[in-house]
Write a structure and sequence with these properties.
This protein is an alpha/beta fold. The protein has one domain: 2-enoyl-CoA Hydratase, Chain A, domain 1 (Alpha-Beta Complex), CATH 3.90.226.10. Helices cover 51% and strands 15% of the residues. The protein contains 10 helices and 9 strands. The protein has a 6-stranded mixed β-sheet, with helices on both faces. The protein has a 3-stranded mixed β-sheet with strand order 5-7-8. Helix 1 runs parallel beside helix 2. The chain binds octanoyl-coenzyme A. The site of octanoyl-coenzyme A has 27 residues, from helix 9 and helix 10.
Length: 260
């Protein structure tokens, strides 16, 4: 299978760009997630890499989130394997010692939002048509506790309470207002602004910065690492329920219909 993520490392600047190139919408399939985790691990071990920028080569979409087809009509074994890969993606990204910046050049629902808020800094294209948020409840499913924790750590408890219950997808300007993203810039400047921002972050001594980052994030990460198997069991049990499968089926049909 061809590569779903293009990684370009500039060893002079120490900055890597991870370009998501999985048409049509960079949905997070098992293959995508596996490739992501391997790429992160390689960069993490490469001494010449100090920062990673995540971005998309698909027009209008950063990532559509978890690939719904990986959760629809699949057996418990597949669901378990898939969920472990979702956990792995988050643990690698949220726990990275490198500086991570999301260059959000399109819509970023659900798992796409999770990837964004797992970075250290978010720059989004200033386009009110692009949206970002944890919209799980709209699919009749529930954002796991570690999605919720990452959101709380980003926008606070009160905003998360509203956002998650209502499955809110924020337009880029609204996302800036609540601090879900840090900065809006014109579409064509998203990547260059990310690179400039990265240079500022890389001016801080790595050691001091990464220990500080870990101090902020470790309690949240530990909550999942000490409950991984339970979290997988819970997901498998939840996603294979007939009623949940029905909700996903209806949501998929809505996606197709909206298009027609
Ligand atoms: N998974 C699989 N296929 C998808 C997904 C997805 N997440 N998103 C879109 N597609 C498909 C569409 O069905 C369509 O397929 P086809 O061409 O066969 O009709 C194709 O991709 C293109 O999609 P659109 O025509 O809709 O493209 P647009 O550019 O108009 O819109 C959007 C792009 C905004 C990304 C839009 O596709 C969208 O809103 N997608 C749905 C996003 C979404 O709701 N994702 C939620 C996934 S769930 C998740 O990430 C966390 C789950 C946590 C589980 C916890 C359980 C306990």
């Amino acid at each position: 299978t061809s590569s779903k993520i293009k990684v370009d490392l500039d060893s002079t600047s120490g900055i890597a760009v991870m370009n998501f190139q999985s048409p049509p919408v960079n949905s997070l399939s098992l293959d995508f997630l596996t490739e992501f985790a391997i790429s992160m691990e390689k960069l993490e071990m490469d001494k010449s890499c100090r920062g990673v920028i995540l971005t998309s080569s698909q027009p209008k979409v950063f990532s559509a989130g978890l690939d719904i087809m990986e959760m629809y009509g699949k057996g418990p074994e597949h669901a378990g394997e898939f969920w472990r890969a979702v956990q792995e993606m988050w643990l690698k990204l949220y726990g990275s010692d490198m500086v991570t910046i999301a260059a959000i050049n399109g819509s970023s629902p659900a798992g796409g939002c999770l990837m964004s808020i797992s970075c250290d800094y978010r720059i989004m294209a200033d386009n009110p048509r692009y949206s970002i948020g944890l919209n799980e409840t709209l699919l009749g499913i529930v954002a796991p506790f570690w999605f919720k924790d990452t959101m709380v750590n980003t926008v606070g408890h009160r905003e998360t309470e509203k956002a998650l219950q209502l499955g809110l997808l924020y337009s880029a300007p609204d996302a800036l207002k609540i601090g879900l993203v840090d900065q809006l810039v014109p579409q064509e400047s998203v990547l260059s602004t990310a690179t400039e921002t990265m240079t500022k972050w890389l001016a801080i001594p790595d050691h001091a910065r990464s220990i500080t980052k870990s101090m902020m994030r470790k309690p949240t990460i530990d909550k999942l690492t000490s409950n991984r198997e339970t979290d997988i069991k819970y997901f498998v049990n939840f996603i294979t329920k007939e009623s949940i499968q029905k909700s996903l089926g209806m949501y998929l049909a809505m996606l197709k219909k909206r298009k027609a």
